[in-house]
Amino acid sequence: MKKCVEKVAVVECKDYNQTRVDTAVKKALELIDFKFEKGKKVLIKPNVVGCFPKKQIATTTNPSIVEAVCKILKKNKCKIFIGDSPFTNPEASFKASGIDKVAKKYGKQLIFEQDKLVNVKNNKAKVLKNFKVAKTVKDVDLIINLPKLKTHSLTKYTGAIKNFYGLIPGGIKQRTHMHAKGDKKFSKVLVDIFQNITPDLTIMDAVIGMEGEGPTSGNPTKTGLILASKNGVALDIVTTRIIGLNPKKVYMIKEAVRRKLYSGFKVLTVGKNPPKLNFKIPSNQSKSLTKKMLCKLFKEKPIVCDTKKCVKCGLCASKCPAKAISLKPYPIVDSKKCIRCFCCIEICPQEAMGFKK
């Protein structure tokens, strides 16, 4: 019996010039033989994390990628929704990313927690057997996933699978973190969501990615690529290899493969030969064998505050799922309460939160 081959398109795109992006996206779709049907209701799910003026270009999906997809959908007379649930101040986050202008031009901006919520029951889930999503997520005919290429302090890497955590509305994310402490269990939650609400198409913005203390405090890194696949897991496998990670050591990918969320054993890349890069991973993930053994014996205390950068806004404390942070007057982390989800690092607009050296 012939095994199925998952195609992942790797296309060169050196910058965010709209004409270049339009060409690259169109080529990527041709390489994976993806065609849109006319008149469909379509949800585009970019990665809109929040407002990070210094590094917005490396933090959120670029609006040029979103617009390139919208142009193709408009030609096919589709009804377009562009939705996400940023961690803080959704309207300001959409504006900071520039995606709000694209939404006004081509369709409707959708902040998930402002939509009617419906319950999703998933008997096959390992952790998250019930969760809520915006009604529109369930009503559309097609979902297009537009992740951003970044490393991640909790999951090592964030791409197609991780981007769908943004389907969970508002403060429900914080409660979900409390039920999924640690990388392994949280990765199972990510796959629970992805298994139940699977994108029909994934296009990754890897023109400028982020390495180091991702997903928001790392360093912008020019990669010059746009990737696309009908299968998000296959795309994550290819992308992690490109940035120098072993996909078998990224728990969410390993879990997705275990659950057979991609149909073949072979992933075929088409287009440009994938480059071999060596992204720096977050410092808390860069551990020697000795450090890993010590971390099993003692609770890690990775979160500290750079008081020179901190403006005492209290955002980290207000969004901490475990309520482990208090301001005295700078953030102090209670290590007994801390679940090490690193949301405080991800959310800090000043990059004042970090890892203990």
Characterization of this structure:
The N and C termini lie far apart (53 Å). The chain is 32% helix and 24% strand. The longest helix has 14 residues. The chain has 14 helices and 16 strands. A hairpin with a 3-residue loop joins β8 and β9. With 357 residues, the chain is of the alpha/beta class. The chain has two domains: 267 residues, Rossmann fold (3-Layer(aba) Sandwich), CATH 3.40.50; 67 residues, Alpha-Beta Plaits. Strands 1, 2, 3, 4, 7, 8, 9, 10, 11 and 12 form a ten-stranded mixed β-sheet that branches.
Care to give the gist of this entry?
The protein is an alpha/beta fold and 357 residues long. The chain is built from 14 helices and 16 strands.
Q: Tell me the number of structural domains.
A: 2
Q: State the shape.
A: globular
CATH topology of the largest domain: Rossmann fold
Q: Helical segment tally? A: 14
Global Rg: 19 Å
Content-based structural category: alpha/beta
Portion in beta strands? 15-25%
Name the poorly predicted regions: none
What's the helix-strand series? EHEHHEHHEEEHEEEHHHEEHHEHEHEEHE
**Tell me about the biggest sheet?**
10 strands, mixed
Terminal residue distance: 53 Å
